[in-house]
Design brief:
A: mainly alpha, elongated, B: 535 residues, alpha+beta, 2 domains, six-stranded antiparallel sheet
Chain lengths: 115, 535
Amino acid sequence: MHSIPADPLPPSPRKARPRAASPAYRAGVAARAIAAIGGGYLLAALSTRALALALPLSPVDKVVAATLTGLVVYPCAIMWCFAAASAARAWLGLAGACALVAIVLLLVRTFGGAA
Amino acid sequence: MKEGFRQSMAWLHTWSGLLVGWILFMVFAAGTASYFRDEITLWMKPELHAAAPARVSQAEAIDLAQKTLEQRAGSSRRWFITMPSARNPALEAGWVPAPARGADPQARPKRRTFGSITLAPATGKELGKARATRGGDFFFRLHFDLHYMSALWGRWIVGFCAMSMLVAILSGIVTHKRIFKDFFTFRPARGQRSWLDAHNLSAVLALPYHLMITYTGLVTLMFMYLPAGVQAVYHDRTDAFYADLNGGPAADAKPSPQLAPLAPLGPMLDEASRIWHGAPVGRITVNHPGRANASVNLVLQEGRDMTQHLPNLSFDGVTGKRMSGAGAEGGGAVQARGVMYGLHVGRFADPLLRALFFLSGLAGCAMVATGLLMWAVKERPKHLKARQDGKVAKVGLGLRLVDGLNLGGIAGLLLAMPVLFWANRLLPSGGTGRADLEIACFFTAWGVAALAGLACPARWMWRVQLAIGGLLFAALPLLNAATGGAGLAASLKNGLWAVAGFDLVSLLLGMLLLYAAYRLGSRSVPRARLAGSAA
């Protein structure tokens, strides 16, 4: 018999959970998924828009740099939605981030940005 | 989800990977095959195996092609020409057909209505004797457009799956406690643990590749997925954005009503090649040929530089005078996107690097497949225990569905891919709709395999489907030699590496699948490890 590393398998999240299929749990997962897919996209789109207006670059470079960044914002937002302690917190955090970016976007549009 | 960060990310990793896993496996497999798109196309046209590439100058070849195009597509709005290269000895020309009178000028023609021909560079004649087939382009398009649906829908679905994949990779990295140690860990024949090790190994071994290919894949279509930036800066003028992005002046959207003969393309190619220090021209776009506002855009041949953002030159289509400066402009971001796009399609790679990309793509297929199988392997003991305790009468629907989809999505696809190549050689080479018939054979084989897998997700079904796929793959070199292609002996002797490589890789893949089928039957494999064995 070969020696087996002492480290066991990472604990399955299902074991830690009381009962996986309770309606409240399912509703929580659904709420997180909606926040992640819809809200995450909104945050990515808002950030892209704000960056595209704010970056001090040529028009085409601004757009490309902003869109490249938006593609990273989206998965990070999705991960946040599932890492948050509760579905309500996921929604709140995402709404807060969207509001923050929207304010930046408004400021950039009002004051003309760096361009 | 009251657990810690790592547990919630493990949960996210499982579900973001599982739910889109079967489409991802197909996207990975088709994308991996697309690295050898030109070689697959050549293999699927055995009539061309004997033709040695003729050596003619680019200017001579384009003059002959121009004559053919003026006859065939004189009223078209736009021509696209791809010059012969080391990987594809033929000259490819395509055109957007003239829009029907009274049609909405904004409506873009569908992809299916594009015209295209393949020409012999030395004669300008259409290579009519090759059979009608989509060749490697089928896998290339399947990779991001899917099939039997509009390309737009396909791209959104694939984009959704790719974003899910990016989330799965990122959360998978976060979940990992000992990423370096796992690199050297493989414990075979230990059931669930072996699947975990295989998943870790295929994922970690090529992790930079997986991250790169997923992100850059999204980058290739990012202005469609995330148009917010373009809208913010360019508003409705998307063609101005693309003109800025790709270099060269924006082509007039509408053809001038005035007619004017198109200037010869040959001298333009000569001038471009001089400016690029003798490097050849790759792609040529002619806007509004035969009209007073015609313009010609030449792009440097790819394969010399890693970026897909290649230098290009524009010419007035009537006078033949050069219009723009020495090619691509744009700052760091545009260059970065060009490099990422280039990395994804990998056309810059020499044969060795291309082979490494191919191997990494196979590792990606293995990562997705082992991840899918692991879900079923982890789930099964719980179901068995519940059944023993008398709580439920039979295995749950979710597990059964995943078992069936795994069989149809993995073994079924591996069976359907060689069926395409068999259909390519066994269907009569004449007749209308032949290219679509080949593809119909592919999807029929896949559909039958998937239905059989869903109906009976058992170990013997895995063995049967893997064995059929393995036999079909392994026999492709024989089929090639028997149906008019250059057999292995001939292709190796004549240095026809594209065809020989296809045969050898098929043989290897076939042996691998046959070995997998054999291993599934051997007694040393613990039964718990196998999907469906106890179901």
